[in-house]
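quick one, 231 residues, struct below
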Amino acid sequence: MEHIFLKYGLCTEILTDRGQEFQADLLSELLKILGVTRLKTSGYRPESNGACKVLHRTLNSLMAKVVNENQRNWSEWLSFITFAYNATEHSVTRFSPFFVFFGRTALWTVDLILPETAEDRKSLTEYTAQVVERLKKASEIVRINLKAAADSSSKWYNKRVIPRSFAEGDLMRVFYPRRYAGKPAKWQNFYRTVRQVVKKLNDATYLVKSKSWKEPKIIHTDKLRPILQFE
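---
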């Protein structure tokens, strides 16, 4: 509430993974009160929230450049790294996140050294009108670029997709990547867990139940394997 909604306003939908902090009743009740639709990624499929995962990968690569050897001072660098990322042009939108939010580029130390320009001498009314127009055009371009990137990713993803369809009540083997000490991961069978299909949600996800689960879970088709029987 304090760090997101009160700074940037409400959203219509929010997508989270299945971490315990996102499964808490507090967050569920907050989103319910605010009228925000909640979406969850399917289990063991980070691609469901790919944009967030790519951001984390970028931040981790930047963090590796600045933390000391024991890596305990990471919190001291986080704000600086976040600002550097926000002030850098995004490969998809072609704008920096800072510009998309504020309608201007972020000021660096060099900007304080350079002489004043005509841009700095505009009146408040002129500057406000310019920022509003700038944000409007940037928003339009960002949406076009995001759609083009999404269409391109969808095209390449669909080329490798193998359609699968399961019926209600089918017993399936579900991907469960638990590793055990002393057992090489390359020799483990991660599809030993057997579960039952409850409902087909769409072409990509199914609702699956198990006696050991408190409630059914949404599983992506890539994480399901049919149990084959031979007579």
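The CA atoms of residues 37 and 105 lie 32 Å apart.
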